[in-house]
Amino acid sequence: MLRLGYSVLVVSDKAAFGVEILPRVTVSGLRSGNRDNSSALGACCGDSEQNGLILDPDKTENEDKTEVDDVPAFLEYTIGQLRIATSGFAAENIVSEHGEKAPNVVYRGKLENQRRVAVKRFNRSAWPDARQFLEEAKSVGQLRNNKLANLLGCCCEGDERLLVAEFMPNETLAKHLFHWETQPMKWAMRLRVALCLALALEYCTNKGRALYHDLNAYRVLFDDEGNPRLSCFGLMKNSRDGRSYSTNLAFTPPEYLRTGRVTPESVIYSFGTLLLDLLSGKHIPPSHALDLIRDRNIQTLMDSCLEGQFSNDEGTELVHLASRCLQYEPRERPNPKSLVASLIPLQKETEVPSHVLMGIPFGPAALPLSPLGEACLRIDLTVILEILEKIGYKDDEGAAAELSFQMWTNQMQETLNSKQKGDAAFRRKDFKAAIESYSQFIDAGTMVSPTVYARRSLCYLMIDMPEEALNDALQAQVISPVWHIASYLQAVALFALGRENEAQLALKEGSTLENKRNSAANK
């Protein structure tokens, strides 16, 4: 559900900006002979009534109402903490666009308190001045808003520079617009994305952070509930002296090409390119889009997947707003407050949750659970034990090679004997003996096995030691970052500890990883 409480200031284009802008083109009547009020994208388009928000005129200065209380204060982390959180910066945890080839790589991670995070690791030469990096990060870290993927902390240790932000699990706007798999983004959701971004920019501007670097569809993320969030990473440059725009020059604000400087007006230009993305479902160069608007060839600009979803007025207003943002002269562009005022009346289906509009699974029943997932939800330790016994050690990478190697030192042989004793105790359900033997294997440190940690975790659960079980499940995930068993056992331990919300997240993570694993195996 979208809840907003902003008053709307309506001004004429000339009064607001002092200039004429591109011709105001309506979406209706683009097809030959189409003289009625239907949409240019087909006679089946929706009616022109807008399902807008009821605005409260008393709520004029309430940007702080969107500030959030459940986000922790900004912290400084050690490189050791973030290495553990990302399983040693494992390649499997990379979520940034260009993977390991990017100069600054973003990883998914999980802190000790189970909070999911995104960790951006900068190129080691990006920020040589540690104080400058820390000051910038702390400044951005003061922002707290439900339209942002908020910055939770940073690491400034030696030549390492990292940022830690809230993790958004439901991909980027680029993914949902340009590379969708199940359904194209609906018109109502596109309008919601535009408004949420405008609100985020207005909040940042009011807090003295009006500059946003390289605003594009990859900077827009979706949270657990499918709500759009603006990444906080764009509020800092990729390096002290680096470029603020990494995209094709065709999408770069014209004044940036002249001066190399980002201004608040440059951010509005980039917002205009995002509006074009939302309108077209493609990444169209602004010059080409403006030519289409001038020639009144809007039909070519609009995404054909949107046919029947919007009225003439809605399409016209959004095209008109995009053209205002893309004015060549920076002073002729609207400010964030004006963007919000223009977008609020256009909102549709405001009572429908974002995850419904997006078709994103949400809630405990969102993903169908496997037998193992169901057992974890019920905390059925007997069934979990049977499944772990059946799986054996086949998920341990290199385990077979280790066991077939003949020339063991005495210490390695003793380590193997400990594991074998632990396995025997595990099978006969002597859990205390199994814990003792598995602990000897782990403490020896000559071999690493996620399965041993998983088995010891279950043993701890069997004797009602959920905190120790959780630690072992986390360690199993450090060793094997995308192993679904580790996430499932974390869920069971968290359920046992009464941490319901965190347990549901771990259960969802385990189910997602298991589904991905099964899909890959079936290809």
Automatic annotation (TrEMBL):
- Stored InterPro entries: BSK, Kinase-like_dom_sf, Prot_kinase_dom, Ser-Thr/Tyr_kinase_cat_dom, TPR-like_helical_dom_sf, TPR_BSK1_C
Write the Enzyme Commission number(s) for this entry. Answer: 2.7.11.1
Superkingdom classification of source: Eukaryota
A molecular function (GO) term: protein serine/threonine kinase activity
Would you tell me the Gene Ontology cellular component terms?
plasma membrane
> What's the main place this protein lives?
membrane
Where does it localize? Cell membrane
Q: What GO terms describe the biological role, i.e. biological process, of this protein?
A: brassinosteroid mediated signaling pathway
Protein kinase domain location: 92-358
Keywords, ordered alphabetically: ATP-binding, Brassinosteroid signaling pathway, Cell membrane, Kinase, Lipoprotein, Membrane, Myristate, Nucleotide-binding, Serine/threonine-protein kinase, Transferase
Q: Which family does it belong to?
A: Belongs to the protein kinase superfamily. Ser/Thr protein kinase family.
Protein name in the entry: non-specific serine/threonine protein kinase
Query: Which source organism does the UniProt entry give?
Result: Nepenthes gracilis (Slender pitcher plant)
